[in-house]
Amino acid sequence: MSDIERLKKEKPPFDIIDDIHVYAREGVIDPEWLDMLKWYGVYPQKPQEDGFLMMRVKVPGASFSSDTLREIASISDDYARGTLDVSDRQAFQFHWLTIDKIPTIFERLEKVGLHTRGACGDTVRAVIASPLAGLDAAEVLNVDPIARDLDRELSGNPAFGDLPRKFKISITGSPELEGIHLINDIGFLAHEVDGKVGFDVWVGGGLGAVAFLAQRLGVFVAPEEVVEVAMAIAGAYRDHGYRVNRKKSRLKYLLKDLGTEKFRELVETDYLKRPMTSGPAAPVARFGGNDVLGVRDQLGGGHYVVVATTVGRISPEKARALADLADRYGDGTLRNTPFQNMLIPGVQDPDALSAELAALGLAPDTGMRGTTIACTGTQFCRLALTETKARTAGLIDHLEAGGLALPQLPVTINLTGCSNACTRYQVADLGFMGSLRKNAEGVEEEAYQVHLAGGIGQAQRLGNKLKGVVLAKDLNSYTAAVLADYEANAQPDELFVDFADRVGHEHFQPDVVLTAAREVVTA
Question: Are 157 and 121 a contacting pair, CB within 8 Å?
Answer without folding.
Answer: no
